[in-house]
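Protein Record: Sequence and Backbone Structure Tokens
======================================================
Scope: a single protein chain, as residues and as a discrete description of its fold.
Tokens: labelled as protein backbone structure tokens, with as many entries as the chain has residues.
Position: the record begins directly beneath this header, with no further notes in between.
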Amino acid sequence: MDWFWPEGFLTLLMVGGFAFGAFALKLPIAVAMSAAAVLGAAAGGAGLPVRHLVEGMFGYLDTILIIASAMIFMKSVEKIGLLEGLAAWMIRKFREAPTALGLGIMLLIMFPGMITGSSTAAVLTSGALVAPVLIRLGVPVLQTAAAIAMGAIYGMIAPPINLPAMIIGGGIDMPYVGFGLPLLICTVPLAVVTAFILLVPFLRKAARDDEALEAELARMERNPMSLRLFLPILVLVVLMGGERLFPTFWPGLGMPLDFLLAAASALLSGVKWNPLETATEAVRDALPVMGILMGVGMFIQVMTLTGVRGFVVVSALAIPAWLLYISIATSLPLFGAVSAFGAASVLGVPFLLALLGRNEIVVASALSLISGLGDLMPPTALAGIFAAQVVGEENYFKVLKHCLVPGLLTAGWGIAVIYGAKAIAGILY
């Protein structure tokens, strides 16, 4: 038992304390993770390490600023009616082309998650927007909810904002640079396959209520589509794209300022909205996620301080490769039942360290994909629960049943990307 004591004991204590606080005491995830960090430090003989806790709390400050500014941008886009107008235009344009319509709707569901890094934001914005339309188009209620849940998760993992990847990279001081293409490889094929499983077959049957559909589309077209509505998107693309395409002379403003400038450009859209009220609402919605990141930072800091992090890495290195892959495919989603961000920090970072030498960016991208499945795991199952709510289904397990096949494909694809990380990196870079 020498190999287990004390680091193994502290590992079980911290993880168990976190799970007990989140499940039994029903504490907020941020509070449960912070309390587990304090418990681990005390048991490890470090007392109350205020300096380490504060350092950990601010370890993800850059990510927190990105989340807050991205949420402000997303709220500004929502206020001017761009998402509603775009959805209505897409349905009118591709109503008779079910494949294109299914893929377009999946991309629309993903969009808020791509910007905010939150599956919940995607479900409650674009998901809630397209749900009644999909039902009117003949897609069954449960398949509609499952498509929204899966699309929201893929959006959370797709670029430009992927919080689990930021957390995993931050755990080994790896900057969030060069993740765009690997994350597209992780998410785009799955989004296409999921659209063909859950949306396209029903859209092809065309068993729709045209009268109800027309009424729904008319409601969504509150602001006529115009180039001015797309101004925030265009500004964001120019700012982010210019920095990547012309790094030698384009000013590197950083993601938070890019998002804020793009949000400010929505004032020129011709639609009246209150910037201060919108920013306040956005920050309020982002607070739970920002709190989780503070808790994650403290948890990782104490893991390093007490030797828990090293113990987990060494343990992961000691098991056969095939068992490591199975552990990744099962433990990351299961631990994500508490929080996908928690899974990324507690397990994603050690798994990445155990897989060093396979191209860390590609591996971290795949690990973030598998971590995202935590938003489908009961009892929290945030993506599944909220998706069920937007379609009016009380039993979210019925929704999760239809997410099973896409979820298994997601885990399998994530493992495949990890296994072929070197080959993928050789093609991309």
